[in-house]
Specification:
alpha/beta, 6-stranded parallel beta sheet, Rossmann fold
Length: 538
Amino acid sequence: MTSLPPWLISLPDAEMMRGIDRWAIEERGVAGLDLMERAGAGVAAAVERLAPDGAVTVVCGKGNNGGDGLVVARLLRESGRQVTVVCVAQPQEFSGDARANLERLPGDSPVRLDGQAWVKDASEPSGSLATAGTDVLAAAVLVDALLGTGFRGTPHGAVADAIEAINRADTRVVSVDVPSGVDASSGVVCGAAVCASITVSFHAAKPGLWIRPGKSYVGEMQTLDIGIPRGAPQDVPVGLISPSVFEQLPRRVATSTKFSSGHVLVAGGSRGLTGAPRMAAEASMRAGAGYVTVCIPSCLQGILASGGTPEMMTRGMPDDDGAHTLEGVAGVLEASARGGALVLGPGLGRSESAFEFARALASEADVAMVLDADGLNAHAGRLGELSARSAPTVLTPHAGELGRLLELESAEIERERLRHVRAAAEQAAAVVVLKGDDTLIAEPGGLVAVSPGASPGLATAGTGDVLTGVIAALLAQGLEAFTAAATGVWLHAQAGRQAARRVGAPEGVIATDVIAALPIARSQAAEGQPRGSDRADG
């Protein structure tokens, strides 16, 4: 059984939710109809808050998600709202709790998407939903109750037509549990999917509502307690990073020294690329590292020393026209004998000598390491070589870099972010941080932490180097790799929001603003001040 750290909010997938529902019904005696009633009541309340007046159209599938929608329709009709119920299947096809709520529905019977009444004889032609008009969808709010958390794959036929019609309607949409067409377990979207204004998720949010591309269809997330008793079985390997992760940050005390605060060694830089290692180093210092040494090609040492903060130490390495070489590996290993953490890759460049340097250093260094940028590119197609390392390893790729590591197109990575970050973590026997608004942190055993995101100021050059430096500082201060990576991602996002507030807008943020905001973000969290939105589609 997977035990989530206390700073992760459980995100059960579809199979786990089926088990939780079954446990509530079979072992705790909660009636399925009662769960459906509470779910429908919560969605109806969300509709009322979104649009207190005006017509409502509820579009239902034939499963339990459609049954939830029928509860919504009944409750809104009983409160005096004009409600049209559209079903994409013959009423005779409904069963179980969904059928019971169809029979409870007062007022007009459900219609087809084209506005015509369903025929009673299922053998008669039902018409084509592809010719749907807009009359039944001319409402203040549409309720999407087509597909639930168990859906996977590509919507077809009448359901696909209904999804496309909902999106064409250009009105506000409330999705029941998950936007139809989104895989609730992974965030994968294979075909048409509803673009919701609000998604009301039952019991707990699901991974696919926080992971792109699914996250971009959710709109505002609302989680609803539908009365599942406490003590439900938990075997959940995916969790959302909560603000309580702040408690994992190391703190200096009266007896702390620069040595106990941790040493970070940055190996990178090349001709024209001295800014990246400098930002990683300065971010490490602002994130609490006691001292930082940058190992850079000798011919660039003066440039780095003159442009960086005076507290940053530099060490010149053998170079070939401004690029690291194999001869420099021994010097970095000697410097790493003090312990701490190694950053490998920022500004390294893509020369063959630099790639040889990166591969040899990654293989031989026996300290915790964060591999980023061209340190990752040096291992393109060779990801498994990293599994031989004995010390903790954290990789921080964006989708393009992860694609090169796995020899896949970046578009394929973006289609199935959860699957590919887990695959990379397993191959490398390392923690992998797949960056994005929904940054995913995966460990080899399958545990994944998801960042809430909501920090658009980070969408600028250099902020990846900042994140690398932050994670390295936390590793150097003694956090284990998964915790250091997740805590670093959270602090980095906090600093991005704080930087945007300080400069006036996310669009004005540059990476050095984020570095400067790191101590302020940490202090703000410590004082319990507002932390910004818990989600945004960024």
